[in-house]
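Honest question from a wet-lab person: if I give you the sequences of every part of a complex, can you actually get the arrangement of the whole thing, not just the pieces? Trying it with mine:
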Amino acid sequence: MQIFAVLLALLLAPLAATAELLDFSAAEWSRIVRHGPWPPPFKPDPSNRVSGKPDAVILGRTLFFETRLATDRSLSCARCHDPALGWSESRARSEGRAALDRNTPSLLDVRLRRWFGWDGGNDNLWATSLRPILDPREFAASVSSVAALLRGDAKLSACYARAFGRNAGEVDDEALAIDAAKALAAFQETIDSARTPFDDFRDALDRGDRETAARLPVAAQRGVRLFVGKGNCAFCHLGPAFTNGEFHSIGIPFFTAAGADGGRHAGIKSLQASKLTLLGPWNDAPELAAGTATRHVELQHRNFGEFRVPGLRDVARTEPYMHDGSLATLREVVKHYSDFDPERLHGDGEAILVPLKLDDSEIDDLLAFLAALSPTVPPPDASSGPRCE
Amino acid sequence: MRSLASSVLILLAALGAAEACEPPRLEASTRIEGKRHVLLYRSVPSPPPLNTAFGIEIAICAKDGASVAAPRVEAWMPAHRHGMNYRPSVAVKSPGLFRADGLLLHMPGRWEFVFELGGERLTATHDLD
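Yes, you can. This is the full assembly:
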């Protein structure tokens, strides 16, 4: 009988271990719950009249995998934004027709952003979709070549007519290229990250269901506590998408072979020189997408070397990390925040960003939490939907 | 003697008037009393949201009775030693009444609203969690 009791205790021990819920304070509870719910409902982008329209998504998906958009037909959007790699790539720095200075940013949850690209050089998804197509270092195409493709290919032409309600032959080159970018944006708005074990934990906390919340491994719970507490991570990686969408210098060098990457400083200058913004003539609903942030963004000295705070959902799939892909693994990223050199930060930068001096177990806990931001089942494959036929 | 006392009383009354003024009415607002101005403000929406653009309605009067120009508005995180990434625009709605737009508080924590007007700097703190 005594042996039976011991065996029973041993059998139940793992259950008891997995059923532990840390004694989160009310403040921690509140900060954790702020990272949800997930997913947020879809809201069409008012600046893009085909946002959310299925026919535009089909055209956009087709164009996303279309190598004929590039002058030499060697590149497509999917070459660098690989669906299997969190819509990013494994190379540290992108390579188009020439070597580039930055890592390819993931497109997961891109519809939720305020600014696009590592430097926020665009304030909308359609303009940022057109940028690599026209960049001589990437697709090296022109509005004329994009327009010629849409007009000359019967399937694309028919697809365009369904999506936009007009014939490609009746539209001038620039408008047609921007429409192509708007279709690409409509497709990318469907690239959502799936729910994760963290979301089940967060929702359980929110409804007071301690038993379900306790299913998150204790190491990950300790990692959450670090994330919203000592780590100060949630100051910038805030909200359901785990980003405030703004820009910070975090001590990653920004020197390049050609000199320096100005980051947000260069991004604001580029934004203010562009006519493809929410303040420009191609915004389809300026009364709804007023461009308030664009109108008020301020160029400051500290913007030099700042880069966009990336979201953390499904982050394990998008290595390498940082704007220049200089950190190969998530462990390196956490160790960076633990040990970085404060001398590399701007004097007028973020004062609360200090080396965390984490011990090995704390690093493991943060990694366990970041792992809990990966879905347990693959997200719906946005790349496998219908294409123009 | 009576004439001197009257003069002193009149002077005191005048000084008292110079130390008080009433800004245009602004419901559900926060009041800041400066040496030279009284300022009422309320965020729209209220309370100010985290990481979303919002506006501030402002009512001001000058204690010396002078007309008031549009204030300069900013927000600052003292503990972080940085402000916003945005410069608000300020429009005059009517004499003494203003509207600032384009504020965006991109981090949780303690923020300080700063109103600069006529050489005076008025501040108020908001904890954003």
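Two things worth pointing out. The first strand of chain A starts at residue 247 and ends at 248. Chain A has a mean pLDDT of 93.
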